[in-house]
Amino acid sequence: MDFQIRDAITANMIGNDASQIRDVVEDAIKRGEEHLLPGLGVFFEKWWQTAPEPEKETVLKHLEQTFKA
Questions:
Q1: What triggers its expression (predicted)?
Q2: CA 38, CA 5: separation in Å to the nearest integer?
Q3: Ranges of each domain in the chain
């Protein structure tokens, strides 16, 4: 992923509260447009870099369940 995308998304999100961030995430998912996926990836990356290990484990278990065949 291009670092310019990371920087632009980060700059656009600075100062947003939880409600605004939720709106961005839900709008991106609702639209279902592929070009919005990198933005959601940046959200996940930022969270992953700061999340405590127990939170990461919880999310990983949820993802495991979500992607079970």
A1: Expressed only in the forespore compartment of sporulating cells.
A2: 8
A3: 3-66
